[in-house]
Input
Amino acid sequence: MADVLGEVAVLTPGPYLHIGGDEAFGMPHELYAAFVTRALGLARAAGKRVVGWQEVSRSGALTSADLAQCWVGDGDAFDPEAARKTAPPQYHPLIDLAAAAFEQAPHDVPGAVAAGAAVLASPSRVLYLDRRYAEPSVLEEQNERRERVGFASYRPMTSREYFGWRPGELVEIPAGARLAGVEAAIWCETVGDFDDLAFLLLPRLAGIAEKAWTDRATTWEDYRERVRTHTARWERLGWGGYYRSADLFT
Output
């Protein structure tokens, strides 16, 4: 761990170093806490400000200099019964371990805030872009892709729903927390090519950027008109696989 974090710290030009720390299913708490505490110390010793996923607060080792990244979104609770229906029996013990770990999730961010750490907002509810679209595409050929790209375990959401939040009003982050920023995330288990990636990222990423960078509240109707002006740029840049959402392009 010292070798890896030390090398990554040297290669990283910015002030931050992300140590991960999420989904350590089945790892005994004492070992997990010791491992995270060690990782935090190594990253700090390398001169970095440390970021970790929200579970790292379980170590009890966060300080006011650290950032905890919130990712477990309200309404996206892990459903072990649904997971068992689609997983081979040999994986059921792992599902039980995952369920036990997710039961602790509601305490993670409050614990980080209590330790004085700032919070980086990435709740899956509005900031994970591997969620399927609920609304159809204006291009019929994209509707087949809509059924296979993105995680089936997440509730599909419309592009308009994705726009219905503000950074300071996220229910996953307690009042009084120091909000360090917003980060969208995408995981690529369902992504087979570059067009799949463009399909999931755009146009939703444009709305997320607006929410993160705009102090005042903007309306869906205003945003809807403005985002259409970006499509020619996306196509020139090679992102022509973007989703032609019926919410936006009709």
User: Anything to note?
Assistant: The two ends are 52 Å apart (CA to CA). The chain has a mean pLDDT of 95.
